[in-house]
Amino acid sequence: MNVCADSIMKLGMSLNVSKSVTMIYKPYGTARYVPYSFPHFTMNGAILDTANSCKYLGHIISATDDDNLDIVRQMGLLYARTNMLIRKFSKCDINVKLCLFRAYCTVLWLLNVEEI
Q1: Which residues, including other chains, have CB under 8 Å from residue 36's CB and lie 6 or more apart?
Q2: CA nearest to 7, candidates 41, 15, 34, 23
Q3: What is the pTM of this model?
Q4: Tens digits of per-residue pLDDT, 79-109?
Q5: Cα(86)–Cα(51) distance, integer angstroms
Q6: How far apart are CA 108 and CA 116, in angstroms?
Q7: What is the Cα–Cα distance from 68 to 60, expressed in whole angstroms?
Q8: Distance CA 65, CA 22 (A)
Q9: Read out DSSP for 58-98?
């Protein structure tokens, strides 16, 4: 952590500690053997929060090493986009609605069926 802080200072950059968190991953299959108490990590004299999940580059990363939180979030975004299309284009033809759905709600339609 100190090497990271020193490198950031040498580059003339700053680190926002309030937006930074630490995540602790338990070793796979050894959760009952490894204690889950760790000291607080500090950077530039400030204590970093420890989180079970955080958003990084648009995706939710979880300390449980699964994608369930991100999948639920993406499903909610899909529902929101679909409902917006239904509401705004309710009087359009079904073919127009399908074209809009493919363009704004999915990326899988770009793939051929053989590639899936």
Answers
A1: 24, 26
A2: 15
A3: 0.54
A4: 888 898 889 998 989 898 888 888 877 765 4
A5: 37
A6: 9
A7: 9
A8: 15
A9: TEEEETTS--HHHHHHHHHHHHHHHHHHHHHTTTS-HHHHH
Asked if residue 62 lies in contact with residue 55, where contact means CB atoms within 8 angstroms, the answer is no
Contact by Cβ (8 Å): 21, 48: yes
- Answer whether 102's CB lies under 8 Å from 95's CB: no
pLDDT for residue 66 is more than 70: yes
Residue 1, pLDDT score: 75
69-105: string of b/e by CB count within 10 Å (b at 16+)?
A: bbeeeeeeeeeeebeebeeeeeeeeeeeeeebbeeeb
The answer to whether the CB of 78 falls within 8 A of the CB of 67 is no
Top pLDDT among 28 and 35 is at: 28
Q: Rounded to an integer, what distance in angstroms lies between the CA atom of residue 84 and that of residue 94? A: 15
Question: What DSSP state is assigned to residue 77?
Answer: H
